[in-house]
Specification:
This protein is of the alpha/beta class. The chain folds into two domains: 89 residues, Rossmann fold, CATH 3.40.50; 110 residues, UDP N-Acetylglucosamine Acyltransferase, domain 1, CATH 2.160.10.10. It contains two helices and 23 strands.
Length: 218
């Protein structure tokens, strides 16, 4: 019997995730539909799948695995927190890996993460929980992605790069080996990061430079 899967939120990332799950080579479960708090979406059909109701109706599907498909890492973290208040733990989340993606034995991918088509993992890569890798992301040896990180399409990381929790790396950006992107930092699209980026900052450019100051310690 295949595992039933519900996508939480019904936006663009959810439709992309659904596409991966409907690929002929997919064998990770059967999509039931979406849960989304937008009342205008209730009862509608999106990309061939029904919107089953709001997040509160998750209790009606105790057998289903969940995938949180909010585009922003902070939003995914918030939704996972709300679900935790309803008693939903890590064992209730599915991990979605497009059939085109090979995960070597030396690599790990956390629960609730989404790896879309063309993502490459080479060796000893660690992907945290609820991470999103959009199409054609390249992760090389010893990279570490913190929980809720988001890597847009075409991002390339050199070896031994650390991406912090809920950080965002924009489309076609690249990060030099042995560098880090801090928690909740944003690296703009097309940027080339040659030095460590502090947490909660916005950097962009070639080479990438700060557009904001790091927040004062709390």
């Amino acid at each position: 019997m295949t595992v039933p899967i519900i996508l939480v939120t019904a936006g663009g990332l959810a439709r992309e995730t659904a596409s991966a799950c409907l690929h002929p080579g997919w064998s990770g479960g059967t999509l039931l539909g979406y849960l989304d708090d937008d009342p205008a979406k209730a009862g509608t059909t999106i990309a061939g799948l029904p919107v089953l109701g709001t997040l509160q109706r998750v209790d009606e599907h105790p057998e289903a695995k969940l995938v949180v498909c909010a585009g922003k890492g902070a939003s995914r973290r918030s939704i996972v927190g709300r679900l935790a208040e309803r008693g939903i733990g890590a064992d209730r989340y599915a991990t979605i890996i497009d059939p085109s993606v090979h995960v070597p034995a030396s690599c790990t991918v956390g629960v609730g993460s989404i790896l879309l088509g063309g993502t490459v993992l080479t060796a000893d890569v660690r992907v945290g929980a609820h991470v999103v890798c959009m199409p054609n992301v390249v992760l090389t040896h010893d990279d570490v992605l913190g929980d809720f990180a988001t890597l847009a399409a075409g991002v390339v990381l050199g070896g031994t790069v650390h991406v912090g929790e809920a950080a965002y790396i924009g489309m076609n950006a690249s990060v030099r080996e042995q560098r880090s992107v801090g928690a909740e930092a944003t690296l703009g699209m097309g940027s080339v990061l040659l030095s460590d980026q502090p947490a909660e900052t916005i950097w962009a450019g070639v080479p990438a430079r700060s557009l904001t100051r790091a927040r004062e310690p709390k």
